[in-house]
Amino acid sequence: MASTINRQITLARYPEGSPVEADFELTESNLPVAGPGQVLCRTRFLSLDPYMRSQIAGRHISGTIAPGDLMRGEAVCEVVESNTSAFPVGATVRCMAGWQEYSVHEADQVQKVNPDVQPESYALSLMGMTGLTAWAAMVWQAAVAEGDGVLIPAVTGGVGTAAAQFCLNRGARVIGIAGGDEKCRFAVDELGIEACINRKEEDVAQRLDELFPSGMDVYFDLIGGELLNQASARLALNARVILCGLMADYNSATRSPGPPPGNWIRSRAIVHGLVVYDFESRRDEFIAACLPDLQAGKLKQREDISQGVKSAPEAFCRLMRGENFGKVIVAM
Amino acid sequence: MASTINRQITLARYPEGSPVEADFELTESNLPVAGPGQVLCRTRFLSLDPYMRSQIAGRHISGTIAPGDLMRGEAVCEVVESNTSAFPVGATVRCMAGWQEYSVHEADQVQKVNPDVQPESYALSLMGMTGLTAWAAMVWQAAVAEGDGVLIPAVTGGVGTAAAQFCLNRGARVIGIAGGDEKCRFAVDELGIEACINRKEEDVAQRLDELFPSGMDVYFDLIGGELLNQASARLALNARVILCGLMADYNSATRSPGPPPGNWIRSRAIVHGLVVYDFESRRDEFIAACLPDLQAGKLKQREDISQGVKSAPEAFCRLMRGENFGKVIVAM
After folding, report:
1. Under 8 Å between Cβ of A133 and A243
2. Region A219-240: what's the mean pLDDT?
3. pLDDT tens, position by position, B263-299
4. A27, A224, B40, B44: which has the fewest Cβ within 10 Å?
5. A295 belongs to a structural domain
6. Do A116 and A167 fall within a single domain?
7. Do residues A89 and A14 both lie within one domain?
8. Residues A136, A120: one domain?
9. Nearest to B259 among A59, A257, A270 (CB)
10. Do B257 and A259 touch (CB under 8 A)?
């Protein structure tokens, strides 16, 4: 056992708007002890995601985080103590470890990680919850098919990158949106999408008019707010809109309204609300469908990895300012 | 031939807000003449519908009506002159006759009326476009099933009445909304729905909380505006929302925003934009499915029938003020 101390990040106070590092606190506690049937896990990779801001605001379906509470999150861990035959010491598992170095779990709260998923951090990104989110949205809900024109915001982020590649591999035409030239270049040159709108410098509505002269077939909404309005006004007939994230609202105390419903009537849109938890039972199906492409090098994930649990607040604040570049992960 | 004069209603000027009779003009012209392959039709029943207000405002997908233009609309007519073997003199047909007594049509712009649909005006209401709208929404899109809790606004109107009965016949629990006690009594006592909210006297949001303590499974949106917000905040898991009408906006120069998308994410809603024209090819299938219930007396339609083409403006203005009671039809 390398340590007897467990470093953790708790919420210090409710952020006002975009969170700052002082909204979080680094605390230390003794190493927890695995009880009967439990495992003690050491975190190797922790996933940071925008929905956590919504948990802090008390608006997320997974529950609320209040000052003093441990920040929650999914992680890939190594089992370092085990009182269950299901997960021997040394096993690599996925669990809701939270923002801390060590955590204790009941055996049924821990999942095996498919050893074919490499690098291991991909179990949190491309082949993890963000990948599953993108697959549920683009494949199971929107049924993206060859020739569909798809708009994907935050296209260099965790969910966006996965979605873009899943769509490209199905023969769709993908237009992305990202914050900055470097991200846009990556999206076009590395991911291979057709074009990427730099939302910080370009007129998004005008670019959408140029890039989708006949309207878009699929809009994957990770944002809400004005972009949802702009996309909904530019849908092709029989478009699909997947409502999944609310980045435009996460830092705000108020909630943006949705687009005028007439836009969706005119395009005969089908709009799906997506919560990835509903698809947990199909995770293995998703991984099995993607593994051949992953192993053939046709799927990749840029990761924005910081080191040590103490780096989590800064990494999360960057994420909530849109300054991350790739899926945000904390390595420990 | 009973007449050599064709009385017509044209748009006199763009209405401001809710239309008034002076926005329309009664004009007279000579009887049109059926050319080769054409039929001359005498209107027996003309359908008046809220979407016409949207045509006047230039916001309807079927096109715009400008001052001086004939008001458009679907009608059941008798063929009084025929130059096509497809429709002999005396045939009862359905066509886009407009607000006038006589109209000329190409043979392929005229449809036979199923003689089993009685009374004949039902070809414009329960077994016509309003019925088809309700069937497409509740049966084909929302797939209403036994036990579903369904909210239907304007429940004594053309589309609402049809939708309520289709849902009841499938074993759903139907809650309606109507403007006034008399309409609400009719909806409960005659249509047989469980409860009807009087939107003019009751607190709609509070009544929805009482009537749908676990949320509604289906909301059939004929209204938009605040009611769409209120319903969307009270959806059960896996709810379906059918966006079909915008009564809240038809008289307005602006368009109401939609509900915050988070409400639809949380409920994993599936939202469909509905334009009834898309289902025209399935009209016979719809009528065949409904005829047994119609002939068994299990489907009925209250109609708000006025007499003569000159009554159309007043009837339409009442409709746009929500003062009609039943499907609005002009008999000639």
Report:
1. no
2. 97
3. 999 999 999 999 999 999 999 999 999 999 999 999 9
4. A27
5. no
6. no
7. yes
8. no
9. A257
10. yes
